């Protein structure tokens, strides 16, 4: 059964009241569901998703640039427990969603948000799509939905992605979503037994809220600062 609740219920005092969203009231999981996109459902991760998520994240081409490689169901369960304990937009805590193809009801990937520990209005984002379903625009659609939620229904100020510069599909994905390349850190991460570079891409709330045409017309150098709020 779905009940409307104030967003304040989830975010405590940090979010202005007045926003109303739907929470799916399931046993032990009073969590929200993001407005569905045209082809996808974006829902909080649950215990029941563990097997599929482990399968997708174990595929070598999927895990190559990913830090989180759950091997056992209990790892997923403990993340779900933490999500339930901390709620959405808890500083320093990943909150993971599943991505389901509406038409077939197949779970085809996941996406996550990670508010930074020092200020939860800055949110890191990650996404994974099962290779069988890649290059169909699904990651673009899922992250678009997630950003719409973050920027239009919460007080998120900035969304960013930390990407291995060799991960071309991921760079292309975030470029398409109008993220700006902000930094290329050289050998800044010890990852899978080697030093690797880290590309930081980001977008601000005021940029996301600009109409697409106005954004495209703006020189890249001006996209980050001095934009009149809409
Ligand atoms: C990155 C990833 C999520 C993209 O998912 P996807 O559903 O295939 O992405 P989309 O279909 O929405 O495509 C987005 C853009 O990336 C491009 N793209 C997708 N796969 C590509 C590839 N293998 N090579 C080059 N470009 C690619 C698409 O063509 C599209 O750009 P376009 O519209 O200009 O053609 C997917 O490749 C993946 O799960 N990779 C493994 C996990 C990972 O590394 N995640 C990123 C962590 S930050």
Give your account of this protein's structure:
The protein is an alpha+beta fold and 230 residues long. It has a single domain, classed as Aminopeptidase (3-Layer(aba) Sandwich), CATH 3.40.630.30. It is 29% helix and 34% strand. The protein contains 8 helices and 10 strands. Strands 4-5-6-7-8-10-9 form a 7-stranded mixed β-sheet, with helices on both faces. The protein has a 3-stranded antiparallel β-sheet with strand order 1-2-3. The protein is globular. Bound molecules: coenzyme A. Residues 62, 65-66, 126-129, 134-140, 161, 163, 167-170, 172-173, 176 line the site of coenzyme A (COA). Keywords: Transferase. Residues 40-206 form the N-acetyltransferase domain. GO terms for molecular function: acyltransferase activity, transferring groups other than amino-acyl groups.
Q: Tags for this entry?
A:
29% helix; single chain; Aminopeptidase; binds coenzyme A; 230 residues; alpha+beta; three-stranded antiparallel β-sheet; globular; disordered N terminus; disordered C terminus; 8 helices
Low-confidence segments: 1-31, 224-230
**Structural class determined from secondary elements:** alpha+beta
- How would you describe the oligomerization state of the chains in this entry? single chain
Distance between the termini: 36 Å
């Amino acid at each position: 059964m779905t009940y409307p609740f104030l967003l304040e219920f989830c975010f405590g005092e940090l979010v202005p009241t007045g926003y109303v969203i739907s929470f799916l009231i399931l046993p032990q999981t009073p969590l929200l569901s993001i407005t569905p996109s045209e082809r996808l459902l974006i829902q909080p991760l649950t215990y029941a998703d563990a097997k599929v998520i482990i399968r997708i994240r174990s595929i070598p081409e999927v895990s190559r640039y990913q830090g989180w490689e759950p091997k056992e169901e209990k790892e997923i369960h403990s993340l779900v427990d933490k999500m339930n304990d901390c709620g959405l937009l808890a500083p320093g805590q990943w909150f993971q969603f599943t991505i389901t193809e509406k038409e077939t009801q197949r779970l085809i990937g996941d996406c996550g948000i990670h508010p930074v520990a020092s200020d939860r209005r800055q949110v890191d984002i990650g996404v994974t799509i099962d290779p069988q379903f890649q290059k169909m625009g699904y990651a673009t659609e899922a992250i678009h939905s997630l950003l719409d939620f973050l920027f239009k229904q919460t007080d998120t100020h900035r969304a960013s992605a930390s990407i291995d510069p060799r991960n071309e599909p991921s760079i292309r994905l975030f470029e398409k979503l109008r993220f700006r390349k902000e930094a290329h850190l050289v050998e800044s991460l010890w990852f899978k037994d080697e030093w690797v570079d880290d590309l930081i891409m980001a977008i601000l709330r005021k940029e996301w809220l600009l109409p697409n045409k106005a954004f495209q017309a703006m020189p890249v150098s001006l996209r980050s600062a001095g934009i009149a709020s809409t």
